[in-house]
């Protein structure tokens, strides 16, 4: 999820607390402890060290493409004018 939403580790921790669909996807519940940002960071580094983050993204993209959904890698920029 962090790869797809480009969230920092603390933002990912917050999202797991605040967004029920992310908790459900991750198999987490508020009944038990949610991983803190340092645990998320360690897990992300483990994925990166073994090249799994890109592999997971590519596999998910292929699965979605076969289901008729297009998934692309991009950047989101906030252009709010105050």
UniProtKB/TrEMBL annotation:
- List, for all copies, the residue spans of the domain called Transposase InsH N-terminal: 1-45
The record's InterPro entries line, in alphabetical order, gives: Transposase_InsH_N
Pfam families found in the cross-reference section? DUF772 (PF05598)
Protein name (database record): Transposase InsH N-terminal domain-containing protein
């Amino acid at each position: 999820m962090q790869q797809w939403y480009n969230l920092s580790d603390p933002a990912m921790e917050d999202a797991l607390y605040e967004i029920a669909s992310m908790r459900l996807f991750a198999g987490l519940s508020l009944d038990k402890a949610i991983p803190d940002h340092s645990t998320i960071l360690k897990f992300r580094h483990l994925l990166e060290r073994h090249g799994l983050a890109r592999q997971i993204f590519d596999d998910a993209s292929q699965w979605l493409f076969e289901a008729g959904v297009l998934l692309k890698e991009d950047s989101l920029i906030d252009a709010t004018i105050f």
